[in-house]
Write a structure and sequence with these properties.
Blueprint lengths: L1 E4 L9 H15 L2 E4 L12 H13 L5 E6 L3 H8 L6 E3 L3 H11 L3 E5 L8 H12 L13 H18 L3 H6 L3 H7 L3 H10 L3 H11 L2
Parallel strand pairs: 1-2, 1-3, 3-5, 4-5
Helix pairs in contact: 1-5, 2-3, 2-8, 4-5
The structure holds ribulose-5-phosphate (5RP).
Protein name: Ribose 5-phosphate isomerase B
GO molecular function: ribose-5-phosphate isomerase activity
Enzyme class: isomerase
Length: 212
């Protein structure tokens, strides 16, 4: 699985610690990690709103399979990611959330609070979250005998979101283009996106925004 980690300005200084936990878990389970958000306080500036834009670009173009995002509360990143078609983001405070999200909801993004509740032992909690988020087969239900009902409802929600959403690129064109420009301005995002994106229309749109 290809996993993008993205952090915004408010908690950017914690990126090395979070990335280390994600890299450790991903290496153990054979996943690839792209660190596409801020890697420190002085990096290309992103807010949780930009994270929604780059998360949706990476997921809808199939450049990555999963996004790990967050902000201070985690709630802004959650709302910003879920604003977009093709993104199914869960809120994750502790490892049980990650496990239940994977098995019951089977979405493709997590929003984690990196300020609230981030105290002593936080890096251990983060590692355990990643262990549960990226372990074994997803969508198996909890308890397992509820799998059919839970996966049926996850599929219905996906259909509802498809119906309620505009065409993805049209949606991107309908918002302030300076927001998109700032969102896609980071070098590590651009490398992960252009090396892996599989959707010509989305790639052409991002190239246009960047003047390439
Ligand atoms: O958690 C958040 C949104 O849900 C933001 O990270 C938080 O609001 C940033 O705070 P500030 O603008 O005061 O640095």
């Amino acid at each position: 699985m290809k996993i993008a980690l993205m952090q915004e300005f408010s908690q950017a200084a914690k990126n090395p610690v979070v990335l280390e936990q994600l890299n450790t878990v991903a290496a153990d389970k054979g996943h690839t990690v792209f660190n596409v958000g801020m890697d420190g306080d002085n990096d290309h500036r992103l807010t949780y709103i930009h994270l929604g834009i780059i998360g949706s670009l990476l997921l809808n173009s199939k450049a990555v399979d999963f996004v790990v995002a967050g902000c201070g509360t985690g709630q802004g990143a959650l709302m910003s990611l879920n604003a977009w078609p093709g993104v199914y983001c869960g809120y994750c405070i502790e490892p049980t959330d990650a496990f239940l999200f994977a098995q019951v909801n089977n979405g493709n993004a997590l929003a984690i609070p990196f300020a609230k509740g981030y105290g002593w032992g936080a890096e251990i909690n983060i590692r355990y979250i990643f262990e549960k988020a990226f372990d074994g087969e997803r969508g198996q239900g909890y308890p397992v005998e509820r799998k059919e009902s839970q996966m049926t409802n996850a599929g219905i929600l996906a259909d509802v979101k498809k119906g309620a959403s505009k065409d993805f690129v049209e949606g991107l064109k309908a918002i302030d283009q300076d927001l998109v420009k700032q969102a896609v301005g980071g070098e590590r995002f651009q490398k992960a996106f252009f090396d892996n994106a599989q959707d010509d229309a989305i790639v052409a749109y991002v190239k246009g925004v960047l003047g390439k």
